[in-house]
Amino acid sequence: MKSHLRAALLLSPLLAIGAAPPRAATPGEVVALAPAEAWATVPAADLLVLDLDTGQRVVIALAPAFAPVHIANIKLLTRSGWFDGITINRVQDNYVTQWGDVTENKAMPAGIVANPPPEYERSSAGLAFRPMGYRDAYAAQTGHAGGWTVASDGRLAWLTHCYGMVGVGRNLAPDTGTGAELYAVIGHGPRHLDRNIALVGRVLSGMDALAALPRGTEALGVYREGAARPAIRIARLVADMPAADRPGYEVMRSDAPSFRQWLAARADRKDDFFIRPAGAIDICNAMPPVRPVKR
Amino acid sequence: MKSHLRAALLLSPLLAIGAAPPRAATPGEVVALAPAEAWATVPAADLLVLDLDTGQRVVIALAPAFAPVHIANIKLLTRSGWFDGITINRVQDNYVTQWGDVTENKAMPAGIVANPPPEYERSSAGLAFRPMGYRDAYAAQTGHAGGWTVASDGRLAWLTHCYGMVGVGRNLAPDTGTGAELYAVIGHGPRHLDRNIALVGRVLSGMDALAALPRGTEALGVYREGAARPAIRIARLVADMPAADRPGYEVMRSDAPSFRQWLAARADRKDDFFIRPAGAIDICNAMPPVRPVKR
Asked: What is the pTM of this model?
């Protein structure tokens, strides 16, 4: 069987399987077949849209259950227009793309919390955390809660630094950063940053606008003085956009049977391509499925 | 303390620390101070140089200890000029960049092994495998051997799918791919592919030429018909290049005291930025340090 580009590398459903015997559903099939009740709409007030001057759009789901003060700051910065004109200043390969005020003197809007508390972790009480039950290098448990990837020591819980997660740049402690300087992970999950920085969200759409940028040539991937820097043309919360323009996204619910089925199918791949299913999955390979809301 | 771009996000040594107290070396400091004997030169016959028509260069260290038949094929394909003109056809965000013969009818050179054995794992005997001792979702043990990241079940050992690793696209089993179709990992380590595909090497330089490409818009990140595709202008083994032009790279030896020190410093970050060192490290965050050979 010859497949164009050996697309079989990823997913066998694209192959003409012919008279294939019945088999377990693939992860993609589980997602495609998941019922409406398996999905939760991201609240419009928690969806941050960055329209870049490159014409690309980045949509970020915010996680107020984990970093409420930082996220209140981010919403205030967004609504006051502070992010408009802010540039991407750092793209470090296999690490982060980071944006913020390169002049470091743009005035903050009134009401900003200059020194938020260290929202690096929270009580696991009330979180409906569902551990996956697989080993993890960094935490006693990893799993999901409310559509987020979470690690826990049993008592506390925190978001995990995975591809596409968004965090708050900061200086040395006890400064935790205001939320004016943000980064998105564009490489292997730098989980050593967990519990050391406030994570505030996840890029749901437009990762390519952040990950496919030229890498910065200075130390830490900072762009050289004078290098072209993509800028945020306008940042908005979806809740503040005209109704007709609002993008919408759904994340698969962590408590949905479809999600457990998806996780199991990802951990134990049974499609025709896989010779030896792993029988396990790393939390950063278990980012909950996302889909745009159909209009 | 105000640092430009909050560079403290990554490494505190860039900050003016002032009268900081003595502290443990950072990973970067361990690398900078490692003695010459901590480094092993990659053999020129195992260094594959891809010069792209974008002007960028990708240098890949091949791993003949793990996939000798596939790598003999890759060397034959290189030396016969087969890779010259080959295009990048697939860039899937958080997964792989893949190159090969989009026409699927370019004649193979004489001597190619059409169906290599499944070099997905090998005996751990004779490998001088050094386990790190941290938990891993996918394997009983992870660690290093000969400058490579390795997983093992005690009896067998295999290379791990981490950012920058290069593997062989294939169809459904028992076809293992010839080595004419290759991919590099550009996202979180897809470790579920371990033991399912032959890994053949690691990109030592030029990852940005593969990871910063526009993502393909078709299924699986395949570029649309007619989309611009970067091409390999010329592929060469360093051993076949004129002596004056040869790039050289060194990888830190897995058995060097400096390497153990680097691993410990990465697992237990003690610089001023880190509040809570992880006390552990995932194998894909433990890719051995690489440096160009000074001339």
From this structure: 0.93
